[in-house]
Amino acid sequence: MSIQTFLEDLNTGNLKGYTDAELQQYEEELTALTLKSYDDFAESYLKTVHTEDLTLIKYQEMEIFAARLPKNSHILILAAGSGDEITFFKEKGFTVEAIEPSAAFAQHLKGHQVTHGTLTDLSAFNDSSFDAAFCHAGILHLPDVKGHNIGAEKAFSEVSRTLKSKGYLFQHVRAGSGAYIQKETGRFFQLYSEDRLKELGESHGLKTVLASHIYKAPLPESFKEWISMTYQKV
Question: Distance (Å, rounded) from C-alpha 81 to C-alpha 42?
Fold first, then answer.
């Protein structure tokens, strides 16, 4: 069965004929496509990622999130990318660790405490070891297969495990429904509704404490609407 057929079945919810092993295989294939894309254009991405309006939105959200955290908090950055979040939270006086799936980006971040790995496997980190986790546009590259411990479900399970009681999680994703592979880059994208994000959190012991919809004018029309969610572990 082709990856395109799997995407069609994912979007219609017609996954009853798939074994867990097959679902895991398709998740790994989609992740491999996305990581190849990021590895291939990492250098150009790092040169162009800092669009003024987008950077302002991101830093405003980090300021709001940081204001919730206790002094000397230990933070895990999920999908560290360009490293902006690492630098920001370090400058706030927090202890910061990170995980980055792309080998090219991980190499760029070698001056920081960064683990090269996926968001669905946080085995490098102990249970209840972080006061907070911050994920800006990370899980949108993971398939949302409801009721199966892969993709987005696995990522939420893993980050919840690593958070201390009352710890916070920030997620930032594209708003919408469905999933697709972007023709221009080969990256996989999963879109999310606010209700689904709340459900994902609740099913892994994370209560939604703040939700906001953001319209990013500089981006192409299909990329403009985003959702930011802040959760607290109960």
Answer: 9
* Backbone φ/ψ region at 60: left (φ over 0), alpha (ψ -120 to 50), beta: alpha
Which among 99, 54, 59 is positioned nearest to 77, based on CA atoms?
99
pTM of the model: 0.95
Q: For position 50, what pLDDT does the model report?
A: 67
Residue whose entry in the numeric block shows the structure tokens 């002094």: 71
Q: What is the pLDDT of residue 56?
A: 84
Owner of token pair 């400058």: 91
- Reference 169, options 234, 72, 94; nearest CA is 234
Tens-digit pLDDT profile for residues 8-60: 999 999 999 999 999 999 999 999 999 999 999 888 877 776 676 778 889 99
Q: What is the 3-state secondary structure (H, E, C) of 40-107?
A: HHHHHHHHHCCCHHHHHHHHHHHHHHHHHCCCCCEEEEECCCCCHHHHHHHHCCCEEEEEECCHHHHH
CA dist., res. 19 & res. 24, Å (int):
9
Phi-psi region of 213 (alpha: psi -120 to 50; beta: other; left: phi over 0): beta
Residues with pLDDT less than 70, the chain? 49-50, 52
Tell which residue, 164, 76, 158, has the closest CA to residue 122: 158
